[in-house]
Design goal:
This protein has 294 residues and is α/β, with parallel strands linked by helices. It has a domain of 197 residues: Rossmann fold (3-Layer(aba) Sandwich), CATH 3.40.50. 41% of the residues lie in helices and 15% in strands. The strands form four sheets. It has a six-stranded parallel beta sheet with strand order 2-1-3-4-5-10, sandwiched between helices. A two-stranded parallel ribbon has the order 6-9. It is globular and about 55 Å long. It starts with a strand and ends with a helix. The structure holds NADP nicotinamide-adenine-dinucleotide phosphate. NADP nicotinamide-adenine-dinucleotide phosphate (NAP) binds next to α1 and β4.
């Protein structure tokens, strides 16, 4: 196996921590946290990265809350557009490969049932617009970069929807979840395996690539499947039933959410030459690991 020196940005986030722990054993891994490189300071990026040695840069940093992006559009632009552009320029100068993480929110969520990499993008909020502009900036500066679009992440390092639902169901049987918002939950652990294969065996793959598990879900079905697995594992959840509600009934969101952003992973399956497992199988593995080790 050729040596790969991997630099991870955003290594304190949910995906970034998963990437760091996945690659740490077999690769030369380094990270740059906010205290060493504040990505809002675009002018500091070039010098800091120039002083580092790496072959592959994984950029899992960004302003990832759609609601914060909506109220802080300048910060969203700095972190999701200007910083990725500057990072890509450095990678290009170093001939390093950049793998930049993006989102299903680049799509409008209307008309199509499933989105492929080449489909038209039309984000509906500041988060999606800045992430799309970031994709374009990265590929403009470093055409060999890989833009990995992911959706509905969960995993060991940051609590997300299934963890929150299970926690709530240990206390109450009155649960509700949105049933008209469609995409696919994706395991951070699976993303790490796919990224490793893309680094080691597919160095020439570039452009947008959808990195997601197979199948389709709503926040409602995601919650009910998580609860059934939890019950099967012996957790004293008070219910496995969740009341379906409409996205429009939630008034707390500042940013509009796209409704149907399910991504096709056909390109990923073709590149890796393997079937990508279902989100239900990946979720079960995660919950077994999390709850049976206690
Ligand atoms: N989570 C999802 O469901 C989801 C869905 C679709 C796409 N994505 C994409 O996947 C990627 C990873 O998401 P995630 O959920 O793992 O993100 P996350 O947990 O929110 O982590 C974001 C990371 O960015 C870093 N960061 C933020 N502002 C910074 C700054 N000014 N300087 C340096 N670092 C800064 C954070 O560092 P601090 O710890 O210092 O704040 C943290 O390490 C992102 O590109 C996101 O857009 C995520």
């Amino acid at each position: 196996m050729p040596a790969h020196r991997i630099l991870i940005l955003g290594a304190t986030g949910g995906l970034g921590r998963a990437l760091q722990s996945h690659f740490q054993p077999g690769y030369e891994v380094s990270t740059l946290g906010r205290s060493e490189l504040d990505l809002e300071r675009t002018d500091a990026i070039s010098a800091t990265l120039a002083a580092r040695e790496f072959d592959v840069l994984l950029n899992a940093a960004g302003l990832t809350s759609p609601d914060v992006c909506e109220v802080e559009p300048e910060c969203a632009h700095a972190l999701n557009v200007a910083a990725p552009r500057a990072i890509a320029e450095c990678c290009e100068a170093k001939r390093a490969r950049m793998i930049h993480f993006s989102t299903d929110y680049v799509f409008s969520g209307e008309e199509r049932e499933i989105w492929r990499e080449g489909d038209e993008t039309e984000p509906v909020n500041v988060y999606g617009r800045t992430k799309l502009a970031g994709e374009q900036a990265v590929l403009g500066a470093s055409p060999g970069a890989l833009v990995a679009r992911v959706s509905w992440l969960y995993g060991h390092y940051k609590a997300s929807h299934p963890d929150n639902v299970i926690l709530k169901a240990l206390q109450t049987d009155d649960l509700s979840a949105v049933a008209d918002k469609i995409s696919v939950p994706t395991s951070n652990a699976d993303i790490c395996h796919w990224v490793e294969q893309l680094i080691v065996s597919h160095p020439d793959i570039s452009g947008p690539l959808h990195l997601c598990n197979s199948g389709t879900a709503t926040w409602h079905s995601w919650a009910e499947v998580a609860l059934k697995i939890a019950q099967h594992l012996g957790l004293p959840v008070k219910t496995t039933r969740v009341r379906p509600i409409a996205l429009a009934s939630l008034t707390q969101f500042k940013a509009r959410r796209p409704l149907k952003t399910l991504m096709s992973n056909a390109r990923l399956q073709g590149i890796l030459g393997m079937e990508i497992r279902s989100w239900q199988d990946a979720l079960e593995e995660y919950l077994v690991e999390k709850h049976q080790s206690k």
